[in-house]
Amino acid sequence: MKIVVDDLSSPEITAFLEEHVRQMRSLTPLESKHALDLDALRGPGITFWSVIDDGTLVGCGATKELDADHAELKSMRTAPTRKRSGIASLLLRHIITETGRAGFTRLSLETGSADFFLPARKLYEKFGFVPCEPFADHRPDPNSTFMARPLRSTPEP
Question: Looking at the whole model, is its pTM more than 0.85?
Answer without folding.
Answer: yes
